[in-house]
Here is the input.
Amino acid sequence: MRYFVTGEQHRKSLLNALVLMFLGYVALLWLSNGMMYFHHMDLTAKSVVAYYLGSEEEFTQPRSYQGMLEVSHFHLFSMGMLVVTLTHLMLMTNFSTRLKIWLSGLTYISALADEAAGWLVRFVHPLLAYFKIASFVVLEFSLAALVCVVAAALIRARRLIDVSTE
Here is the structure.
């Protein structure tokens, strides 16, 4: 992360390439996250309720406490690491502080909300399915925005390198 602060990103083409490859990997993770969501549900409350509470029409059982706990245990760690890495990379860009604060906060809040929302639908009230849908959509958009902001900063730095070496 030091290379952003000291301006070394202008001299470290290999490191820029590695961060861009990481962002490509995160983009694939983002895509698979959406695919997994839409494999089980869609953006309707009925589908979310059916996934978490089960459906007599589809002969599915409600999500179990243990199953949800295992998924949450993994997601809380992995999403936390992903979000801290992406927000840390974004903080080292030249974008405005206001954008950095809003995008960081939105990403953390939506990641926690997305994880909590399934629990709320399953164990509190089915109407919280709307909260699940909203938190998923905001999380996906905020992760995409983080990837784009960091990639844009690295591409801009690369163009500055190319211009200065001409």
User: Anything to note?
Assistant: The radius of gyration is 19 Å. The longest helix spans residues 129-164. The CA atoms of residues 83 and 108 lie 7 Å apart. The mean pLDDT is 90.
